[in-house]
Amino acid sequence: MTTPPGSADHDLAALQLRADRRRQRYAHTAQRPTMLASTIATRARQILAREHALPARYALHLLIGILVPLAIVLHQTPLALILPAPTPPAALSDGNPSDLVAPMAPLALGGQAGGETPAPDSAFAAIDALPVRAARPEMLEARPLAATIAAEAANLRGGPGTDYDKLGDLPVGAPLLLLAQVDGWYQAQTSDGRGVWVAAELLDMDLAAADLLPQASSIPALPPARVGTVAEEGLNLRDGPGTTFVGMTKLPAGTRLDLLARYGDWFQVQAPDEQAGWVLGQYLAIGPGVVERVEAVTSAPDPHPALVGRAAFGNINLRGGPGVAYDKLGTLAAGAQLGLLGRYDDWFKIRAPGGAVGWVSSELLQTSDFIVRRVPLVRDAPAPPRSRQAPAARRQAVPAPAASAGGVVDFAAQLVGSRYVWGGGGPGGFDCSGFTRYVYQQYGLDLPHSAAAQYSTSYGTAISDPSQLRAGDLVFFVNTYKRGISHVGIYAGGGDVVQAISPKQGVGVANIGGGYWAQHYYGAIRPSR
Asked: Is 94 helix (H, G, I), strand (E, B) or coil?
């Protein structure tokens, strides 16, 4: 229906007229109690004005007698009797059919002040009968969730798990849009539009919103494992991709290797013992679809690096030989760059910044295994000073065990053949702890005369794994001739231990590779140098 021109103005004028009428009608009605009170007050003044008609006290009594009953009547009369009754909305006034009448009485507030009053379901019948508006499709669509990388570097993978290929990485703070989730992984989109997967612990996000993301509907198939199998017995594992690099170990045929990277025809691999190195690809059996997924690198380390290290601490002693028995030549400052000239056991022959040449314990030197493997071995170490050698009566031409090295072991080997004496701690005879105490006294370490007491980190570093033993370590045994830690000796290398064995055998060498000594082995202490 089309509204005639000017009808809006006509309706507005009519509405204004109706409002004026209602105000006049309400004002007239509201004036009725006021007019009544005014009439009473005027009448009372007339009576009081007649001074000679009645005494003043009688006039006052008359006024009170009129006002009190009136107040009682007004108090007990319902409000509806004073105010005009509301006209129903459909009623007409003044014969004008367009006059809209609204009730002027106040709305009932009810007696409930503590919230909504429960109502039966039937009370909502009219509301429930209304047509339901369908939600817009875009309101139901899952929306991507913004997130950022929380780790220093987060790996991006091709699927939800570390078994999937690495597609790259992102630095801390890099943005992502999360699309779906599954088992602690999120399907995401990078700022350049790539589809990737990221582990939840690597992300900074709104956790409550992330829980609302849908479960991933399509998960990529797991690709073949990036592994190869050694196809030839004794395959050389080298520390770089080429035959000019140093061989570290030989791998038996059938060994399964994880493929980490490739450089030309060489593969960087990780062996089952977690040792990493390089092997030539032609000696590996690799399944289809694997090689092209191994990350290719374009650079390799220098097979002939500078043989240098740095002093790990300040005031490091530079000695005249590979051991604390040798004279101190000077001290080195922390961080001093040292040229590595050779190595003997766990000592390095070095050239200090000023040109001085001496020896430093490997524990006090910072360098890499890659460099250490290239430092030449020194076959003959200088003899220790005569003042530190054993007394002539005990000095014997006893050959040290084949694998022994270092001044401590050499000195201990000279005492092989000495008598076993209970409580002995000198050249005339030793018990086990007296022997180790006497040897280390020559090198400035004062040990207690007790095997159990010598097993303490007060004297060095605890070593529990026998494969980590070095020449010069104190090795301890339990439950030999008594319960608890009851025996001690000096490790000479190759499983051999120089020790005061028993009253019958005296000081000798026994191997802990098996049998009785292996069964009673307890641990070791590497004395502080």
From this structure: coil
SS3 499: strand
Residue 115's pLDDT is 52
Other Cβ atoms within 10 Å of 366 Cβ, number: 12
Query: Which residue type is seen at 292?
Result: E
The residues, any chain, with a CB within 8 Å of residue 123's CB and separated by 6 or more, are: none
Q: To the nearest whole percent, how much of the chain has pLDDT over 70?
A: 72
CA 158 from centre of chain: 23
List all residues 6 or more positions away from 365 whose beta carbon is below 8 Å from its beta carbon.
309, 310, 311, 312, 338, 348, 350
Please give the single-letter amino acid code of residue 63.
L
Torsion angle in degrees (nearest 10) through CA of 197, 198, 203, 205: 30
CB 488 within 8 A of CB 498: no
Confidence band of 111 (pLDDT split at 50, 70, 90)? very low
Q: Are strands 357-361 and 347-351 parallel, antiparallel or unpaired?
A: antiparallel
Give which of 466, 483, 454, 453 is closest to 523, Cα–Cα.
466
210-247 tens-digit pLDDT: 888 999 988 998 888 889 999 999 999 999 999 999 99
Name the amino acid, one letter, at 329.
L
Long-range contacts of 266-271, Cβ-Cβ distance < 8 Å, separation of 24 or more? 266/241, 266/242, 267/228, 267/294, 268/241, 268/297, 269/228, 269/237, 271/237
Is 521 in a helix, a strand, or coil?
strand
Per-residue DSSP letters for 207-252? HHHHTTSPBPS--PPPPPP-EEEE-STTEEEESSSSTTSPEEEEEP
350 near 357, Cβ under 8 Å? yes
Question: Strands 308-311, 337-344: parallel, antiparallel or unpaired by DSSP?
Answer: antiparallel
Residue pair 63/57 in contact (Cβ under 8 Å)? The answer is no
| Tokens 């049998």 found at | 515
> What pLDDT sits at residue 188?
95
Task: Give which of 489, 484, 485 is closest to 473, Cα–Cα.
Answer: 489
Distance of CA 239 to the CA centre of its chain: 32
The CA–CA distances, whole Å, from 485 to 424, 457, 469, 526 equal 18, 15, 18, 17
Q: Which value, in Å, is the radius of gyration of the alpha carbons in the chain? A: 51
β-partners of residue 261 are 268
Q: How would DSSP label each residue in 318-373? A: EESSSSTTSPEEEEE-TT-EEEEEEEETTEEEEE-TTS-EEEEEGGGEE--HHHHT
> Are 414 and 492 within 8 A, CB to CB?
no
Alpha helices (runs of H) in 422-462, residue ranges in sequence order: 432-441, 451-454
Cα 346 from chain centroid?
36
